[in-house]
Specification:
The protein is mainly alpha-helical and 506 residues long. Helix 9 runs antiparallel to helix 10.
Length: 506
């Protein structure tokens, strides 16, 4: 059976299941059903009575439309799971079919994209590429190796902190590349098994990516999609991310007690090699060196960028007063990376910027993100999410139960599916619950931590995981599913439980 035949069989199977599911999912006339369906009619601009709205969404014709739109969305996700390299093409194919069959008009689909989010992502990736060129990440790695040269526990703590900070500031993918490269450098110097250290780096990276809205595509998506303020995001997510980092370290050190002992012995055995490595790079970065100056300026720019994002809402308020006109915080945030890119002209020639845009931006991921926005909105537009929300409202009988269901359902699916795709699917349901008063804004954070930590469960749960495993394999370091699950099952489950308790007490 060739690839084309397999794809056709997958699509036909998903289509049949989706149409049957949408036919049997029925919204009742109870108070919750009326609230949910009224919100749907307002969303699509259908100005009819509630009873007529219920009749429309439950009709045979709409059930068929819902089944087809759900099938195309799931088809794109299924192909992504089969082969990650297919994800952009799969989303493109599903979107083209949606337009061809006339489920939604092109203008409706185009308006579904948060273009300010896309602009922000492109700018952030470009800025990260500039910071990398300046050598900031190698400098940070060098400092950590210098501080931890005699104690394995200190190395574990410092590497986790580096992963956490870089991920929060510049995103999970940028963070994991440099932290894994440091772990591999340690392996070449000390000749020890660093597979657990790489897994730790991934778990710490994903934990740090929840601290700031720029750390993870899920956080960026939720920030823009729900129109949440940056200050609210940081105020709610940052303390929990710190708590979960502590949980990570408290669980990892006992679990790898024997390995840490082995590392300490290796530190003593290869102390002279570590000192030589640090000394060589310290000479390269001696005071007065042009490269050292660029690094220190770059570190200052990195800190300024982090602070600008953190205080985005306050800065926008001040600018609104100064200009005498209201400024949208999300619109301003979209241009923040470009402001810093312009400032960096002092270090990077102007003609080099286009090269950074070409090399640093994951264009296939950006396109996938755009197509996913469109496919997700069609599920809302056709009423699929409204029917699913009705089902969820009957499963979760209290606000706490709703948080529990959203957190663990998104975590379970994110362990085997692309976690961003899972959150894009769940977010319209969460927004609907928030709009009709069945849940508070905390439900968005249940999705954030469910999606991010759920992705930690398996080596294929998130982009950072896949990148780390790939880098390790290039150096012939095998990270098996068994090694991964031995650590991730315990640590991730503890982090999810802590997240649920934190949200409950909030």
């Amino acid at each position: 059976m060739n690839t084309f035949e397999k794809v056709v069989i997958i699509f036909v199977s998903i289509l049949a299941i989706s149409i049957i599911a949408m036919h049997f999912l029925y919204i009742g006339m109870d108070s919750t059903g009326q609230l949910i369906v009224r919100q749907w009619c307002e969303e699509i601009g259908l100005n009819v009575s509630t009873s007529m709205c219920l009749e429309t969404i439950n009709s045979s014709r709409m059930s068929l439309v819902q089944g087809v739109s759900l099938a195309l969305f799931l088809f794109a996700i299924a192909l992504t799971v089969i082969r990650m390299e297919w994800r952009t093409a799969a989303a493109m194919l599903a979107l083209a079919l949606l337009i061809v069959v006339g489920i939604a008009t092109p203008q409706i689909i185009l308006n579904a994209v948060s273009w300010d989010l896309i602009l922000f992502l492109v700018g952030s990736m470009t800025l990260a590429g500039i910071f990398r060129e300046l050598g900031i990440f190698r400098y940070l790695a060098l400092r950590i190796l210098e501080l931890a040269k005699s104690n394995a526990i200190i190395l574990v703590v410092l590497l986790s902190l580096l992963s956490y900070i870089l991920s929060a500031a510049l995103g999970e993918v940028t963070s994991i590349i440099y932290v894994v490269m440091l772990a591999l450098e340690i392996a070449s110097i000390m000749r020890v098994d660093v597979a657990p250290l790489i897994i730790l780096s991934v778990l710490a990276t994903n934990t740090g990516s929840t601290a700031m809205p720029i750390g993870n595509p899920i956080g960026v998506y939720l920030l823009f999609k729900t129109n949440m303020s940056v200050s609210m995001f940081i105020r709610t997510a940052f303390p929990l991310s710190i708590l979960n980092l502590a949980v990570l370290l408290a669980a990892f050190i006992p679990l790898e007690k024997g390995l840490i002992k082995t590392w300490n012995e290796a530190f003593k055995k290869f102390a002279h090699r570590i000192e030589a490595y640090v000394a060589r790079h310290r000479i390269e970065l001696r005071t007065g060196n042009r490269e050292a100056t660029r690094i220190y300026i770059g570190l200052g720019m990195l800190l300024a960028f982090i602070l600008t994002v953190a205080f985005n809402d306050f800065i926008v308020q001040m600018l609104s007063k100064f200009y005498g006109a209201p400024i949208d915080p999300h619109a301003f945030l979209a241009f923040v990376p470009y402001i810093f890119i312009i400032v960096m002209f002092a270090l990077i020639p102007m003609e080099e910027i286009s090269k950074f845009v070409e090399r640093s931006v994951e264009w296939s991921s950006i396109l996938f993100f755009i197509f996913l926005f469109m496919l997700s909105y069609v599920l809302t537009y056709t009423g699929v999410m409204t029917k699913l929300a009705y089902v969820f409202s009957h499963v979760a009988v209290s606000p706490f139960m709703l948080l529990f269901v959203m957190l663990f359902a998104s975590a379970a699916l994110s362990s085997v599916l692309d976690n961003l795709s899972v959150i894009v699917t769940f977010t319209p349901i969460a927004m609907l619950f928030s709009q009709i008063g069945l849940a508070s804004s905390l439900i968005y954070f249940a999705l954030l931590f469910g999606g991010v930590f759920g992705g930690n469960y398996t080596p294929v749960g998130s982009t950072a995981n896949i990148v780390a495993v790939g880098l390790a394999e290039k150096r012939r370091i095998k990270i098996t599913w068994g090694n991964w699950l031995r650590l991730a099952l315990v640590i991730t489950t503890l982090q999810l439980v802590v997240s649920l308790l934190y949200l409950y007490f909030l």
